[in-house]
Every structure is written in C-alpha cells, then in structure tokens.
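Let's practice the habit of predicting before peeking. Look at the sequence and jot down your guess about where helices and strands might fall. Then scroll down.
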Amino acid sequence: MNKSKLTDTGVVWVILLMITGCLFTIQYITLPRIKDFILSLSLNDHTQVIRRNAVKLFIDNWATVLTAFDLFMISLLIVFLLALVFSELRTDGLSVFLCKLSSNSKAMSLFLLLISILITRYYLNPGNVFMGDSETYTVRSWMVAEHLKNMQFPVWSNYWYGGFPLLQFYAPLLFVVIAIFHLIFQDIDLATKLVLWTSHIGSVFVMFYFLREATRNELSSLVGSLAYALVFHRIYIVLYQGDLHLSLVFLLYPLILLIVEKYLNGRVSGRKAFISFTFVTSALILTHHAYAFFGLVFVAVYLLVRVFTWENTWAGKFKTLGFFAFSSICAFLVSAFSLVPFILELHEVRGMPKIPFHLLLPEFPSLDAIFIIVGTMIRWTPVGHTGNVTYVGVSLIILFILSMGYVVKKRIGVGLGLVVCALLSFCTLKSNTMYNVKNFNFLVFFLTALAAYTPDAVRWMLRRTAGYVRLDKKWGQLMEGHDLSKRLQRTR
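Done guessing? Here is the structure:
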C-alpha cells in the first residue's frame, strides 16, 4: 500500500516535469514561429488590425505554420495532462501527492518553485523590454548603472539634453536593483527581465508564507499563492503597460502583511518585527511613492480590522496599533530623502492632483459603473491590448464570493481584513478617473489572497451533501492543516 502510494507520488513528479518541459518548448519554439508568421502577413497593417485578425490568420494557416515537431510537442502535452487526470481518477495520485507535500516543507518549496518557474516562463522571451512605459524605465536604470560604475550617486544625470534630476519623479529602488543586475550581466534588457522574473517568483513564495501564517493550512496557502502567480492582471500591467515598479510592489506588499501576522501570532520578537516592518515599508516607499501611498492606506485598514478582531485586551490592541504606527513613522523617516521632495512637488506630477486623497474616498458605484468595472475585469481576448489591463477573470471573482461568504460567516480575522480592504478598493474605483489602476492593483492582491479560503468554503458548503463523506475522507487531513500548527510551533 505505502509502496504503491510512493510510486504514484513519483509518477506525479515525472508528469509535472514533462508538462513543464513541453510548455517551455512551446513557449520558446512554437509561439515565436506563430508570431513571426502573423507579423509577416501584416507588415503594413495597423496594430488594431493585427490584433483583430491574429487568431483568424492562425486558424486559417495552422497547417502551414506548425511543424511536425510543434504538433508532436502539443500532442505530448495533451497526453501528459490526461495522464495526470487519469492518475488522480485511478489511484488518487494527485491527492496523495498534495498530502505528502503538506507534510514535507522541502518538497513543498520545490513544487512551488517548479510551478512558479512554469507560470512565469514568458519573462525570458527573446527581445527588448519596450512596451508601454518600460522603455523610459530601462533607460533610467542604465543611467543609474553608469553612475554607479563611476562611483557616483545617481541624483543628477547629464546623459539627456543639458542634464536633468534623474530621480525627480520616481523612487530609486527599482532602478538601482536593475542597475546592479546590469553591472553583473552587462545587458540592460536581460537585467530587467531577471529582476521582473525573480520578483514574480519571490512574490509567490512570500504570498504562500503569509497565507500559511494566516490560515495554518498548506493547501489553502498553495491555492492563494498560485492564484497570485497566475492572475493575468500582473502580466498585462507589468509587461504590456510597462509598469515595471509593480514587480517589486507585488513582492514587498505580502511581505509587510507576513510581518504583521508573525508579530500578532507571537512568532517574532518585537525588535525583529519593528526592524523588518520599518525597512520593508520604506523599501515599498522607495519603490514607488504613489503605489506606497495607496497600498499603505489599505495596510492601515487591514491592521485596524485584524487587530480589533484579534484575541487580546483593549490595552494590548491599542498598544499593537501604536507599535505599527511608530514603525510606519520610522519608515517614513528612512525614506524621507526621496519621499519629502515628492510630496512637496505633488502639483508637478502627471495625473496626481495636489492632494490625491479623494481617489481613496469610497463611494458605492452606480449600477452603470459596476457594469463598466466588472465588465473590464472579465473581458479577455487572445491577443492583449490596454483593455485587458484590468482582466482578472470570472473564476477569481467566484472564488472571492465563496471565500467572502465563508470568512464573514466564521468571523475569521485575517479574512475579514482582506474582505474589507477588497470591498474598499473596489468602491474607490471610478470608471473614468486617472490612476484608477493604483487601487485596482491592490484589489487584485486582496482577491487572490482571499482565494486561500475557498477550499474550506467549498468543504463547509458541502458538509450536508451526500458527497461530503468521500470529500472529507480524501481531502480532510490536508484541509485540516496536516499538523501544521505543531510544525509552526516548533519553529518558534
């Protein structure tokens, strides 16, 4: 029995590795061939025309475009996907595999790394990083690298025109990180891709650890972290719109909440929590001032809900809020050299009025506005364009609704904090306001984090159905956390 289960687990690992190999091959061999063929037929067409006709051109000419090798790899991918399904139906292979992962932290980390690399394989596509605003960001990163190479602090640059303040409108952290990678690899495009890629992978791990700290459940954490990795909005906003700063924002934001949860759960000392919260928050500020402004407002809301639903005395609750308030002030002081000039010159920044607080004032959207906003969240096309920037998909919305109902019914503190922040961020969206995307990025974060509660929500909903006994027998041990609380206690 045990030997069979072990063999089935090994089979699942082999299948997953083969699926990974097939997808990487298709990504770097088949898809470039399709792209080149479509562009060769559309040399004089406008971008909108190419986007509209791309799918039809491929369908009409697929036999010409795809080689025998391409068809073989696609067929092989289908075979391995069916093998994974068959393994689950015949021997519960995938269920046993996930159960074993939940009891082995090293295996879970390896699995998360494999899936993260698979999901983010598009970052290393050949070519330049040039979409949207990314061109100016890569140029600034190259300038910073040139200054660092000459042992100069990158404040003023003479590389353009008669010189200009290099960091006048942008926080420096992203440019410095890319510049360091550029100094190592001597290729600004490769450096940019590596920063985006490693940040995305790192964010998946940080989200997993945050959700594991919050839910005490490996499967729930895995669901939420994979939703965070997969959500299409991250691809579009970073790679299509070129908002490269978000790669670090998506990495640092769950790290802030992870520190909060570790402190509230007593798994980190006050000194370590203070130092880590201060410097991670200042890193967020030094990544992008505007994103930090919007994001930290939602952190404050999350803290209020989380602390007041926390089991402690009122004196302890106010003391905790004061602790994080003081840490935030220290983070402001650490980043003041970059943040204060930005605040004093808000009236000079494109798209940001003198006081941007009105963009965070919640108001329940009208019925027409809800249709517009939700319509953009579920609108998808095979070939991306700016209308897809806010796409999250019907599935994630369904997961959010299920999870929201569950955490409200069970009054789960972390879940309630995420729900309140998600609803507030949604209510701050305006259908015709600039910088809407700032709030939308954090809405996507809260939606994906709440997906972690979906397995428990489904199990809770089905508890009185005929299939619950079989579900509980198959998934019960994994969904109860598989002694995770004891394992976490041993790490204190």
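How did you do? The longest strand covers residues 156-157.
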